[in-house]
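INFO  loader      accepted 1 record
INFO  loader      residues=445
INFO  predictor   begin
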Amino acid sequence: MEKRRYGLFTAITMITGIVIGSGIFFRADDVLGYTGGNVLLGIIVFVVAAFAIVFGCLAISQLANLTDKPGGVIGYMEEFVGLGSSCAFGWFQTFLYLPTITAVVAWVTGIYICQLFGIEFTLETSVLIGVISMTVLFLLNMLSAKLGGYFQNASMVIKLVPLAIIAVAGLIFGKPGEFALGDVQAFKAAAGSFGWIAAFAPIAFSFDGWIISTSICHEIKNSKRNLPLALTISPLVILAAYIAYFVGITSFIGPDAVLEQGDASVFMAASRLFGSVGGKVILTFVVISVLGTVNGLALGFIRMPYSMALRNMVPGSPWLKKENKKLGGMPVNSAIFAYVLSLIWMLIHYLTQKFGMRGDVSEIAVGMSYLNYIVLYITVMRLTKKGTLKGKWKGYAIPVLATVGSLIILSGSVTHPLFPYYFLICFAIIASGYVYYRRNKSKIM
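INFO  predictor   done
INFO  writer      dumping tokens
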């Protein structure tokens, strides 16, 4: 049995470190765009999304407490729902969820590197830099797991610096009270348009990653007490950091400037505070933060095809589960496969951006993942009915509220112009995973 080495504080910092990454830096303008520039409405949407995630965390933590088996959500699907569902969800994670997020965050790296070095921004340039960054970080994690881990730890600390500086500066030097008064007066008109519902998609991206934290349950001391506490406290800490940054940057440079500058708004705010040189320093922190997110995704993704292959859940499993002894048992073939999938989705993302489609390819995948989580919430209720889990609040109320939260998050994706197409892609991939399981049932473990 794994040694339980993490206390409550460490569990909280690990979860917040997983979640706080690149999303908030390039999603603030998206949220404002969907709320018609109304900061107050944006804050409310952040709060609703956060509490939806809190109940999701609480529901799934109950499954985590029933098993010490590693593997996170796929493991819970396997043990409590069935191998077929586990295989289908694993296909979704491997072929859609992880590669789309990796591709989009790598592309954002290209945007901020262009700003940092004064490179003329074009879609092609940002995509090219994103591909180079992604390639380097996949290689780093393939060749040395330790180096990838060191970079991840360093970036986790660095990513908090620009968030804190801009949040504090905006509250001190900005005019939050003035903007709040104006937003209250315009709130009714902004809320009545219902376009703000789409803001749940970019916010869900900013909060994404919390589900990964359940995989450390078997390493947490007194997990039946500490994991639910950590999964409740962490989203609230993240929410406070995000709202502070959101209010800080909008009050400091103004909502109109955030909308106009888009992803460059963080550089504008930093330059006003510290001049061009200081702005470059803050932007360097942002670049490292985003690179840290890509690194974390690469670190996890390169093992996903390998994990599926160990269960014989994907074609080519014998090839994918091969380990390279010279590289400390690294599943190199799995890493190459994950990298190629990320490249394919980078190309698809490039095409959607080239043709001016709003949003990006990751938003639907994040939204659809919440639909998949509902299966686990229903499982919590089913286990409560059987008597495996106890208590009406934990067994019924929490999973029901988590389901409502998931549907709220999903509603943001439904308004995406590409939703019908991506929904079909999601459905096709999930169905393919289940069909593969049915045809290879005797081989799958």
